[in-house]
Design a protein that fits this description.
globular; 109 residues; 3-stranded mixed sheet; 4% helix
Length: 109
């Protein structure tokens, strides 16, 4: 699996702007725009204890699950985009709802 670009600096999985979560989950089933998508894997590093943070390891994402049925890359609950998946946020991200999948492209009807 390709490395996932992540500019959400408050996420515990962000290791040098690369997502280190083994499984990434993008949500926003009926999204029409990027801002209606979110990365539900997000964990705010300032709101977790050091014990939990120590368990977050740097590594490559093995699977990108996708619940965004309106995205052209959504195939059987997975993201089919082979390269260039990017997660970001506008402003401060305090919860996963403050994140966006910048790779989202609305499926034409």
């Amino acid at each position: 699996m390709p490395k996932i670009s992540c500019s959400v600096v408050s996420c515990s999985y962000n290791q040098g702007n690369i997502c280190s979560a083994s499984i990434l989950n993008i949500v926003g089933a009926k999204a029409n725009i990027t801002e209606e998508t979110s990365c539900s894997t997000y964990i705010n590093k300032e709101k977790i204890s050091n014990a939990v943070d120590d368990k977050v390891k740097t590594g490559e994402t093995e699977a990108v699950l996708c619940e965004v049925e309106t995205c052209i890359y959504h195939v059987r609950s997975h993201c089919s985009l082979a390269d260039g998946i990017e997660v970001s946020n506008l402003g401060e991200a305090e919860t996963y709802r403050d994140t966006d999948c910048l790779s989202f492209e609305r499926r034409s009807e």
